[in-house]
Structures are given as C-alpha cells and as structure tokens.
Request: fold
Amino acid sequence: MLASVGSSPDYLLTLWDWASGATLLRCKAFSQEVYAVRFSPHFAGSLVTCGTGHIRFWRMADTFTGLKLQGDLGKFGSLELSDVAAFVELPDGQVLSSSESGSLLLWDGGLVKAVIARPGGAPCHAGPVEVLLHDSQSNYVVSGGGDGVLRLWDAARLADAEPGEGGAACQDI
Reply:
C-alpha cells in the first residue's frame, strides 16, 4: 500500500494499491498544509499525518459498508498549538513529534502524554525541531533542530516519560 497527500486546496489523503495503481481510500487529511504521512511500522492499518498546526492519527476500519479511513486529531491540551514537522512511532505505539518551541511531544492515544526537554528543563532545541529519526536496531532517536544541533535520545527512556517529569538524558552529536 502507498499513501499520498495532495496540496492546496483539498489536502486529500489517498491510499493506493501500488501494484495495480488503484485508489483504495481517499479523504480530506486536514484544512492546511500536510508535511508528512507515514504508515505505522508496528501496527497494520495505522498511519500518521502531520503539518501546519496538527498531527492526526489514522486507522483503517472494515465497516459493514466497506473499508473506511478514520482520523483523530491530536489534542494539544493546555500546550500552545504547534506546527508538527516530523514524528516517529516508537515500538509501543506511542508517537514522538516535533514542535515549534523546540520541545519534543510524546503522544499516547491522541493526547500529549509528556513534553520532553533536556535535563534542567531547557527545550530540546533552540528553535523548531525539524527532523526526527528512529533507529530500531539501537532504539535511539535522533532529533535535529533549526539551531543546527543533532541530539541522540534513548527511545526506551522517552517512551517511559511521565507528565511533569522534566528533562530526559540526551547526547549532542
């Protein structure tokens, strides 16, 4: 299966059977720019999109009328709404996303579970986080920010973060 997102004015998310070139599902992804779409590497039928002011968690559902795509917008709660330029899904299904504030956001079930900062409470980056990559073999996450710094994070420690816990250990690369 292949996923694509169109641009203005419709921002349609389309799922394709790439072998036959047939469209399987299509729906509006969001009302503003969508930067990325990615299937879950861990859970079949799940995918995530992100972009201007949003992150959205999608699942394919087999209903009595056929296959449907259902999306739930991530809820920032008391946090300021942010553009989300990048995300990674951790092995347990939680999603780690970027933010404009320089912090990393840990999502669980469509809600921000924890705001990740460096020890002492400083944001992960001085400026927006632009890149997140997860290496499944080492179980480390690399974050890259507009500040030109790359940081290495232990994904297991990130996944265990709790609300209000503060900073997480990281290494500058």
About this structure: DSSP finds one helix and 15 strands in the chain. Residues 155-159 form the longest helix (5 residues). The two ends are 35 Å apart (CA to CA). Helices lie at 155-159.
